[in-house]
Design brief:
With 435 residues, this protein is α+β, with helices and mostly antiparallel strands. The protein has 9 helices and 20 strands. The chain has one domain: Alpha-Beta Complex (Hexon Major Viral Coat Protein, domain 3), CATH 3.90.249.10.
Length: 435
């Protein structure tokens, strides 16, 4: 036997021969317990926000990744009566998230969430662009996520709607539980003690949250029970003492993957659409565009707000300071030819699914029928490590051409991601460092 390279004669042993080593002992965490934080406000009607306070008093840290919202719901007619057996009224996808138009999160009275009314789409983008069929067909069903299929506006042919309807029909009560998708509630590290969290959850309207085939739909979604299940971590006193010493010199730091959704209107009869100055503060790392009928955005019992249609889009490009991000535009043909493979491949590449034995639950056919997501990456490369990207500025401009004039008013949704750092000092002052 001989070495493959004379320049490398380093010898290694397989781990199976490390017979004298043993794993280190975990002593930093004593135990994790759960407490239920219930609303401090009375839920008088659908327009009343849900207010929840999570106390940070004591020595326990908080694991926000393991903390979840629980809601028990019921669909009723506006007068409070039950739905009839053949009444075709059900709920849209991802109701645990889509039931809230936006969420405000404060830490020690500092607003740490994005202040916008696009929370349902922000959550939907996060889920649909990260999960595969295994997750969607199992744990995501705790949020009543059931994948919609074409035609998405149909109450009989959309299998996702039909499956959700079985849980909600005839005013049956149904339960939802999972993490909230607000960025500040998805910290990878434990939140240090002494930080109070205040959440204010604003409700979506019934015409947005529900779909119905009735002639005169008039419904409400009643909350029967709601609480936030907080994971509290009992930390070893020695670790706490060490953290107290370190925080005197430098604040605790938490990386936040910021995400937000903005939108613009494409008028009826448009063959071209231009959107200038997309990101006035700084350029994000990833950008996703999708088109949805405006009536679904505003709330319509007959329209699915997560139906991202192609509207005969034939060409799309994103430019930064006049230079195309990928050197040339994406040309597509959504007719029977189905020539949109380049956009489909880019979706998997930028979502870090390309050439891996995992994927998104979006088939090539789905891409042209309700899942038309056009994705751009503004990073030099998608390194799968916790690097901080350099802050970049520039004029981002979106250009879209349609082969056929739009037959209705359309909203162009733009979901984008960037980085921020949340800091907490010795006196528990919270600050957000972001571009």
């Amino acid at each position: 036997m001989a070495f493959l390279s004379e320049d490398n004669k380093e010898i290694g042993l397989p781990m199976e021969l490390s017979i004298f080593a043993s794993p280190p002992n975990q002593v930093a965490i004593d135990k994790i317990t759960y407490t239920e934080e219930r609303p401090i406000s009375n839920l008088i009607n659908d327009s009343t926000p849900i207010e929840i306070v999570i106390s940070g008093a004591g020595n326990d840290y908080i694991d926000l990744r393991k903390s979840r919202l629980f809601v028990k719901l019921q669909i009723l007619k506006e007068d409070g009566s039950y739905l009839q057996p053949k009444e075709k009224t059900g709920i849209i996808n991802l109701p645990l998230q889509s039931m809230f138009s936006h969420i405000d999160v404060y830490m020690n009275n500092k607003l740490v969430s994005a202040n916008s009314n696009n929370y349902p789409w922000k959550s939907y983008f996060k889920v649909i662009l990260s999960s595969g069929s295994d997750e969607q067909n199992s744990q995501l069903q705790s949020q009543l996520f059931m994948k919609d299929d074409d035609p998405m506006d149909s109450l009989t042919l959309n299998a996702g709607y039909v499956n959700r309807y079985e849980y909600t029909k005839e005013s049956r009560t149904f339960e939802l539980e999972s993490n909230l998708m607000e960025d500040a509630l998805l910290l990878d590290k434990y939140l240090i003690s002494g930080v109070d969290i205040y959440m204010k959850l604003f409700r979506s309207s019934a015409p947005f949250l529900l779909m119905s085939g009735e002639a005169k739909p008039n419904y409400k979604v009643k909350i029967l029970d709601v609480f936030y299940r907080t994971a509290r971590v009992k930390v070893d006193p020695g670790v706490i003492l060490n953290h107290r010493r370190q925080i005197q010199e430098s604040p605790a730091k938490y990386l936040i993957n910021r995400s937000n959704v903005i939108q613009n209107v494409i008028p009826l009869g448009s063959t071209e659409f231009y959107w200038d100055s997309l990101f006035p503060k700084s350029l994000p790392s990833k950008v996703v565009f999708g088109l949805v009928p405006q009536k679904a955005i505003n709330g319509d019992y007959t329209a699915n707000p997560f139906n991202f249609q192609h509207f005969n889009m034939s060409c799309i490009t994103l430019k930064v300071n006049g230079v195309e991000v990928y050197g040339s535009p994406l040309n597509m043909d959504f007719s029977n030819n189905r020539n949109y493979t380049a956009a489909y491949v880019r979706l998997f590449e930028i979502c870090d699914k390309w050439q891996k034995d995992t994927g998104l639950n979006i088939s090539l056919n789905d891409f042209g029928n309700g899942y038309t997501f056009i994705v751009f990456s503004l990073d030099p490369s998608d390194f799968q490590e916790d690097f901080l990207n350099l802050v970049k500025h520039g004029n981002a401009r979106l250009e879209i051409r349609f082969s056929v004039p739009t037959t209705e008013v359309v909203n162009c949704m733009c979901y984008y991601q960037s980085q921020a750092i949340l800091t907490c000092d010795e006196t528990r002052n919270i600050n957000i460092v972001e571009p």
